[in-house]
């Protein structure tokens, strides 16, 4: 199998974004007719093929209820690719790719359908040379996991004892809705697939800027000596969306911003920001350091002052009239599901003692942005006195999306005859500094699954520790029937979110 640009005509020799090539394999998608598959997963697979990172012996199998033939499914895949792929559509690449595309029609409880899936994979092993290497991607509701996993086990597709190949399963979030359900789900999954063969997808961990947190911290001497409670005042982690829930009411109501985003994405960002340097990038070493951080997270004694939750109201945003949360289709009038959540937590380690971490996530906010802001302690300014009145606190801001990069905020003298100090920004952007475009998160993660490289995938211990952090908030809201506070569309959340920081003599950074 070619593994260099010179031997692979599909690889641009200047493209160093993803330098590894997967071996022969078949990828089975359950939930292939959903939006995630259409807009992200199928285009990502094509982009990997187009870059020469999947071999000619790769195959793609869709499993679903639709009454489709293989050709019908190929047409669906083509339309998805042409609409959403990041690389250009090439007929020669498509012709090679489509030869390995198959569709199996059936329901999750249909034994005959799983027998057809087994036969299809055996046929691909024979005709495409996939060698018994099969990955099963469950882009389906968690309530269907057990049924699908059990069918895979019943029909001998989860084991590879009689073949030289491997078997892996990929699970999309949510990983449960609380600690108890997460443990139950993990037990179900790991009864069928061993822990090392289970890949839990958190697409944020596939983003280039998230991975760059490790490079920024540990490859540079200038940052790490300051990365502790002696110099850092607090840390803010924000994931803001400027859209509402749209057509996701069926999923979103009863879940809310805290379960949907904070429990997974933001706590993973917290772990990467606060972790100690791992021995290596080996998956076990990375996970060990993240787990230490999550296990050290503590909640303030007065939980009532450590959160804010809200629901967006109707109004105008960006010059357009938008619906309020209760005007969205299928939202009950008495729903207490939050569309905004902000939490305050602490990390009980020597490095972070006394440094609060503020997490916030919400919909219909000022703009779409995800960032980590490390805010440093205020300089005493004994020398500059009133000349420094216009300055704030130094900060390092890591922009996860959009406009991926990093901003360093510091004080500088204003040109002129007087000593006047003002904050300025030094900015690094991926788009300006590198000719290569960052790979899409799902490209990296799907490739890692097929290569069997797990560093970017959380294990069940991380998932359960995250629920241990969030569950006390959820239980408090439920026990006290806490009603989320309304907030204007295009704002930065309810007043209570700002009051939470004001009590600590701090303020949210405006992204």
Automatic annotation (TrEMBL):
GO biological process, one term: glucose metabolic process
Pathway info: Carbohydrate degradation; pentose phosphate pathway; D-ribulose 5-phosphate from D-glucose 6-phosphate (oxidative stage): step 1/3
Domain Glucose-6-phosphate dehydrogenase NAD-binding: from-to ranges: 28-212
Positions contributing to NADP(+) binding: 65, 173
E.C. no: 1.1.1.49
Active site feature: 265
GO molecular function: glucose-6-phosphate dehydrogenase activity; NADP binding
Binding site for substrate: 203, 207, 241, 260, 363
PROSITE patterns in alphabetical order: G6P_DEHYDROGENASE
Record-level GO cellular component terms: cytosol
SUPFAM superfamilies (alphabetical): Glyceraldehyde-3-phosphate dehydrogenase-like, C-terminal domain, NAD(P)-binding Rossmann-fold domains
Entry superkingdom: Bacteria
Keywords (A to Z) from UniProt: Carbohydrate metabolism, Glucose metabolism, NADP, Oxidoreductase
Residues covered by the Glucose-6-phosphate dehydrogenase C-terminal domain: 214-509
Gene3D superfamilies (UniProt xref): Dihydrodipicolinate Reductase, domain 2, NAD(P)-binding Rossmann-like Domain
Catalysis performed (reactions): D-glucose 6-phosphate + NADP(+) = 6-phospho-D-glucono-1,5-lactone + NADPH + H(+)
Pfam families: G6PD_C, G6PD_N
NCBIfam families to which the protein is assigned, alphabetical: zwf (TIGR00871)
Entry similarity comment: Belongs to the glucose-6-phosphate dehydrogenase family.
Cited HAMAP family: G6PD
Biological role stated in the UniProt entry: Catalyzes the oxidation of glucose 6-phosphate to 6-phosphogluconolactone.
Name listed for the protein in its UniProt record: Glucose-6-phosphate 1-dehydrogenase
Species of origin: Rothia terrae
Lineage, opening ranks: Bacteria, Bacillati, Actinomycetota, Actinomycetes, Micrococcales
């Amino acid at each position: 199998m070619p593994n260099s640009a010179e031997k692979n005509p599909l690889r641009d020799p200047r493209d160093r974004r993803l330098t590894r090539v997967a071996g022969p394999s078949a990828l089975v998608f359950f939930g292939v007719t959903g939006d995630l598959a259409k807009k992200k997963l199928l285009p990502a697979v094509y982009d990997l093929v187009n870059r020469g990172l999947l071999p000619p012996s790769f195959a793609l199998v869709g499993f679903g209820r639709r009454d489709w033939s293989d050709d019908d499914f190929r047409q669906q895949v083509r339309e998805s690719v042409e609409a959403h792929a990041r690389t250009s559509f090439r007929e020669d690449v498509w012709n090679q790719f489509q030869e390995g595309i198959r569709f199996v029609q059936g329901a999750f409880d249909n034994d005959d359908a799983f027998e057809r899936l087994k036969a299809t994979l055996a046929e691909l092993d024979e005709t495409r040379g996939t060698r018994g290497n099969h990955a099963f991607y469950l882009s389906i509701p968690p309530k269907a996991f057990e049924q699908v996993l059990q069918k895979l086990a019943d029909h001998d597709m989860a084991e590879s004892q009689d073949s030289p190949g491997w078997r892996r399963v990929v699970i999309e979030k949510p990983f449960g809705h609380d600690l108890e359900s997460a443990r139950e789900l993990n037990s179900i999954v790991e009864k069928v697939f061993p822990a090392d063969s289970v890949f839990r997808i958190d697409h944020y961990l596939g983003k280039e800027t998230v991975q760059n947190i490790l490079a920024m911290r540990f490859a540079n001497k200038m940052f790490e000596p300051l990365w502790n409670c002696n110099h850092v005042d607090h840390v803010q982690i924000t994931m803001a969306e400027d859209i509402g829930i749209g057509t996701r009411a069926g999923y979103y109501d009863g879940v809310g911003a805290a379960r949907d985003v904070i429990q997974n994405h933001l706590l993973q960002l917290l772990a990467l920001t606060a972790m100690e340097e791992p021995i290596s990038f080996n998956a076990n070493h990375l996970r060990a350091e993240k787990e230490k951080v999550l296990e050290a997270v503590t909640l303030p004694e007065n939980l009532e002052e450590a959160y804010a939750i809200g629901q967006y109201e109707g109004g105008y945003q960006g010059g357009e009239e938008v619906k309020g949360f209760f005007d969205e289709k299928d939202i009950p009038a008495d729903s207490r599901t939050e569309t905004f959540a902000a939490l305050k937590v602490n990390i009980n380690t020597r490095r972070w003692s006394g440094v609060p971490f503020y997490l916030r996530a919400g919909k219909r906010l000022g703009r779409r942005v995800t960032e980590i802001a490390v805010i440093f302690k205020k300089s005493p300014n004994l020398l500059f006195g009133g000349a420094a009145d216009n300055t704030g606190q130094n900060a390092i801001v890591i922009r996860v999306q959009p406009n991926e990069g990093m901003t360093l905020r510091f004080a500088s003298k204003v040109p002129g005859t007087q000593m006047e100090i003002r904050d300025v920004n030094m900015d690094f952007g991926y788009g300006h500094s590198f000719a290569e475009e960052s790979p899409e998160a799902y490209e990296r993660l799907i490739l890692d699954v097929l290569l069997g490289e797990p560093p970017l995938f959380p294990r069940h211990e991380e998932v359960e520790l995250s629920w241990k952090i969030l569950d006390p908030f959820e239980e408090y809201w439920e026990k006290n029937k806490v009603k989320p506070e309304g907030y204007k569309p295009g704002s930065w959340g309810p007043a209570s979110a700002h009051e939470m920081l004001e009590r600590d003599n701090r303020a949210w950074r405006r992204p």
